[in-house]
Amino acid sequence: MDYATFIRQAEKGEPPAITLLHGGDVQLLDDALHAATRGLFPDRALAAWGREVFDGREASADEIVRAAATMPLGVDRRLVAVRRPQALAAKGAEALGGYAKSPNPATCLLLLADEALRASRDRRTDHWLIGAVPAAAIIELPTRGARDLAGWVRQRAALEGLTITDEAARLLVELTGEDTATLLGEARKAALAGGADNRNVGVKDVGSIVGEQRLDDIFDLTRAVERRDRAGALKMLDRLLATEDAMLLLTVLARDVRTAWTAVAMRRRGRSVDEIARALRRPPVVIETLTGSTSGSEARFAWKLRRCWDAERRLKSSGEPRAEMVALVADLCAER
């Protein structure tokens, strides 16, 4: 089962008896919980009788299994949700694994892990939850690129009655980053910037919440990196770090590396500057800069992207943000 199928079943009031959703997209986890709640309890007052939400940092596997095994009272099915189940002690694997083999059909047990649990470059082995829950009950949250995120935020906002232009959605992604909960929150604020009853969000509304100076400064940083103007880029970085989150700036820089790599690859396949500009939704003058004679090799772009990933890992491992970002920007501007 994939995420979209789970949402459809949950909204019909037919979620599986046990599901583990895992990934870094907190908004998708929230949407999954809300879909299951709406589907199982059309009368929202009944949720107080049939829904129980735990936090894996505070509860034990035994407590959760007992709650899931409890028969419903006053409702057809119970919903037991566990946020951050990856924080549960490993000694709970036996209890949870035993329950997963024969779950209570009158309960929907929803495990909502806000990080990827499979082995990866950041995780040496699978989390024990992967082995405790049947493979058919595990859903890895979908990931999206910047262009997909722009479409997602428009669709998700439409569920709340908001209409966001394509340009405004792309600008939100560019400036807010790839965290969907933050994106949706900024979209809501942009709508309110147009008035309490405003339901349409355009570029002007987005600009009003992020500020024109902030827009100019972020774009100046990326342009300086594109020109390999290390002095200018470091000066702008120093100014931005006084107010901006380092992870946001890293996201913008990494996205620019991917865009440049795509533009150069398209140019080498014979596509014109105007064609590439339309495909990537960037001004032709920017594409000309990105695909100039000093644009770099495939190996160079791959190295830049790995360098961004390394900086992300360091920041998430309590690295000092200013030092890590200064080193990254200097490397991205260097001739190699």
Question: Your description of this structure?
Answer:
This protein has 336 residues and is an alpha/beta fold. The chain has 3 domains: 3-140, P-loop containing nucleotide triphosphate hydrolases (Rossmann fold); 146-210, Helicase, Ruva Protein, domain 3 (Orthogonal Bundle), CATH 1.10.8; 213-333, Zinc Finger, Delta Prime, domain 3. Helix content is 57%, strand content 9%. The protein contains 17 helices and 7 strands. The protein has helices spanning 3-11, 26-40, 47-50, 61-69, 93-101, 128-132, 146-158, 166-176, 180-193, 203-210, 212-226, 230-240, 246-268, 273-280, 284-290, 298-316, 321-333, and strands at residues 18-22, 51-55, 78-83, 107-113, 138-140, 163-164, 200-201. The protein has a 5-stranded parallel beta sheet with strand order 2-3-4-1-5, sandwiched between helices. The protein has a two-stranded parallel sheet with strand order 6-7. The longest helix is centred in the C-terminal third of the chain and has 23 residues, at 246-268.
